[in-house]
Amino acid sequence: MSPTPAGLWRYLREAFLYRWNLLFFLGGTAAAVLSPFPDGLLPIVCAAELVYLGGLTALPRFRAAIDARAHAERAAPEPGAAASQQALADVVRALDPPARQRFERLRARCLDMQRLAQGVGGAAGGGTSRADEIRAPALDRLLWAFLRLLASQQALRRFLSSADEAQIQHGVDDLRVRQEEAKKRGDERIVRSVSDAIATSELRLQNFRKAASNAEFVGVELDRIEGKIQAISEMAVSHQDPDYISSQVDSVAESMAHTEAAIRELHQITGLGEELSATPAILSAGAER
Prior knowledge:
Layout: H1 8-16, H2 19-34, H3 38-57, H4 60-75, H5 81-94, H6 97-120, H7 130-161, H8 165-185, H9 188-238, H10 242-255, H11 257-265, H12 267-270, H13 282-288
Helix pairs in contact: 1-3, 2-3, 5-7, 6-7, 6-9, 6-13, 7-9, 7-10, 8-9, 9-10
């Protein structure tokens, strides 16, 4: 597939800014201005420049070279894109097989719907519609949030499996009994020591319950976002109206606000947060694979 044409203005700009053209044009203009007949020579210089621009931009080889350059500029990764793609690979690699398979199935579903939509819309040759341009960034953002929540869920499950709420609570109860016995004996040293141990155990209990609450929220949120992703990806086939798709994408973006806030709160567990705010190109990465 040939690169998309860069356009007439890009051809003219590249031809005009060619270093040898600038040298001759500016030199000729300066010579005409300094000559005894500037009124007659300046139009000749300008006419020669127009002939040069028209002739060069009409050459197929010149247009093809500029088209290739413009295509390379569009395909060049943005600053930070490499870091985002590395973060994507790191998170996927760190997932347990079931979580990784769940993410890969969802991404494959999006790619299947994308290809099917291109066939329905007559864009199987590789064209990109405005609807696709609106939908793809939204799906990338949702998939990135989904992936980070999978990582959070995995970390929370490991933490919860490493602790026992009933055992911690039993330890707190035993410490309270020892505290009361120490108070009766009037041993302040033991009272202070046991009181500190009780505070520490209660903090552990609080952390465990908070983690359990977070795990429940993450599970529900994963199901919600998975449904959103499937709905938007399937919309590629059932709806081709860019305005309708844009309105749906905007509503999804608004609903993602509390999800992003939750991910930031789980930053210490996931290792992903504010410093990796850039969304990687997940769908295009999946297509390349």
